[in-house]
Design the sequence.
């Protein structure tokens, strides 16, 4: 088998045995994150939650996430990524299921915080440890974009399911309670599946030939050597790197808009058009489907053209336009069109975004830095939903809140354009 055949075969198997299980993990994680937005359509009145209180609870998830983000990423890098991912899934599934039994506001706050703590470091482990060990620098944007279609697919499946479940009742549980229980079960079950399916590194993969193992290991270590030759990063040096600092602030602004949009979209659609919960569930799948196509196209184009900045920034600008204009127009269907644009713009840059830091960081430096970047983003995940709820309670309208979120996306896009055009290339060996 020649080198090109080995490379092709190894890459195909990595997509099947690394990207695919990570794809399922991400679907389950995202379902457990966004179900709160749909549950709120009936849960808020049952628990007596105001818009501000719901925004606080939605955002406090990221308080727990931030505290354990960096330590978790470093533990997974040092020991076993797949075991750490299984631990994450088991704990978040249990906490998510407990949310069905909430009866007071403080239950909501505590369980949301614990859910964030349970899920902390999930995506940094995926981006900094799992993907770089299996995919070269030039393939990462495409691999990450494919993996992160899980976000939209979970919305396409989960939104109609959530809309339907809000109108049913099983064993005395209300619809929103059934939603939390049903969506906790896959996380608990898949925690055990992931241990037998995935491998931590090519040398451990029983589904690779010896030639394929050697090819992937050699490519990874050549890339690592090339990065070190340019600059050897420790975790602390990575934290001080100007590009990492810019990534932190840009991601904070972007994720403020992203989670502000996702947590509040069902209630915004309700306020704009007065559609039923079931209709909102089905219609919410449309922005997810559109953004899925856009994210795949952008990831492919970025890998093909070896360009990141404009691919990400233009998407964020489109999201800002969608958020801003959706609250200005009066016709509900035109407003819904702009909601679709908002969905495209807030989701589409993910593949190119997370391929950028691993172009100049690796190992514990990459794990720590990506944990730091994600922590800043998750701070935005608290700020965006909370400020949205605060403005809604203060003004009686979502208009000012979504304009604020649109401004956050705009500044994030402008910051992304300041990233370096070219980074140290680990050369053709990493392709």
Sequence:
């Amino acid at each position: 088998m020649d080198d090109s055949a080995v490379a092709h075969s190894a890459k195909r198997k990595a997509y099947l045995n690394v990207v695919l299980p990570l794809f399922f993990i991400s679907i389950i994680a995202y379902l457990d994150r966004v179900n709160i937005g749909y549950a709120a359509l009936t849960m808020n009145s049952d628990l007596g939650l105001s818009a501000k209180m719901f925004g606080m609870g939605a955002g406090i998830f990221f308080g727990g996430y931030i505290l354990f983000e960096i330590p978790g990423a470093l533990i997974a890098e040092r020991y076993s990524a797949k075991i750490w991912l299984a631990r994450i899934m088991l704990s978040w599934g249990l906490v998510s299921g407990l949310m069905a039994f909430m009866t007071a506001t403080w239950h909501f706050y505590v369980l949301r915080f614990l859910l964030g703590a349970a899920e902390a470091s999930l995506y940094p482990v995926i981006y900094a440890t799992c993907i770089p060990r299996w995919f070269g620098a030039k393939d990462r944007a495409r691999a990450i974009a494919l993996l992160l279609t899980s976000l939209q697919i979970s919305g396409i499946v989960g939104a109609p399911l959530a809309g339907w479940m809000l109108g049913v009742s099983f064993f005395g549980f209300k619809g929103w309670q059934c939603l939390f229980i049903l969506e906790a079960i896959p996380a608990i079950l898949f925690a055990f599946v992931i241990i037998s399916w995935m491998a931590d590194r090519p040398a451990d993969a029983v589904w690779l030939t010896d030639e394929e193992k050697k090819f992937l290991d050699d490519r990874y270590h050549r890339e690592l050597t090339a990065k070190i030759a340019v600059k050897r990063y420790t975790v602390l040096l990575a934290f001080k790197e100007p590009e990492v600092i810019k990534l932190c602030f840009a991601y904070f602004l972007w994720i403020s808009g992203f989670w502000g949009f996702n947590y509040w979209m069902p209630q915004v659609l309700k306020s704009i058009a007065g559609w039923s919960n079931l209709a909102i569930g089905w219609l919410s799948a449309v922005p997810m489907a559109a953004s899925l196509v856009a994210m795949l196209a952008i990831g492919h184009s970025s890998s093909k053209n070896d360009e990141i900045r404009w691919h990400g920034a233009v998407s964020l600008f489109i999201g800002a336009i969608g958020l801003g204009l959706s609250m200005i127009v009066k016709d509900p269907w035109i407003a819904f069109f702009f909601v679709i644009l908002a969905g495209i713009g807030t989701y589409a840059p993910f593949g190119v975004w997370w391929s950028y830091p691993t172009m100049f960081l690796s190992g514990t430096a990459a794990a720590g830095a990506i944990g730091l970047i994600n922590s800043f983003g998750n701070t935005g995940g608290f700020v965006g939903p909370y400020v949205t709820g605060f403005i809604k309670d203060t003004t009686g309208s979502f208009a000012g809140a979504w304009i604020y979120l649109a401004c956050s996306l705009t500044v994030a896009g402008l910051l992304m354009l300041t990233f370096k055009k070219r980074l140290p290339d680990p050369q053709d060996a990493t392709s």
